[in-house]
Amino acid sequence: MLLHLLLCRVTLGKSFLQYSAMKMAHAPPGHHSVMGKPSQGGLAYPEYVVYRGEQAYPEYLITYQIVRPQESSSLAGAPDSEPNASR
């Protein structure tokens, strides 16, 4: 299965600083984005939210696939890790 990731350049403009999770339909007056900062009892990770599509420029489309090794092939041909006592 192929997966896709869109890597964008984003302009934040004047950011409103927020420390708790809060649903906002738009940036507060006088601001262009919201910057969520992690805090004790608040957000766990930094977040950046823009509300206008014009603030983001899609620069790269990355297509990738996750390949998991098969257990049988990873063990086949592996050198014996224990020393041979008869030598």
From TrEMBL:
Sequence ranges assigned to domain PARP catalytic in this UniProt record: 1-73
A molecular function GO annotation: NAD+ poly-ADP-ribosyltransferase activity
InterPro entries: ARTD-AVP, Poly(ADP-ribose)pol_cat_dom
Cellular component GO terms held in the UniProt record: nucleus
Protein name: PARP catalytic domain-containing protein
Superkingdom of origin: Eukaryota
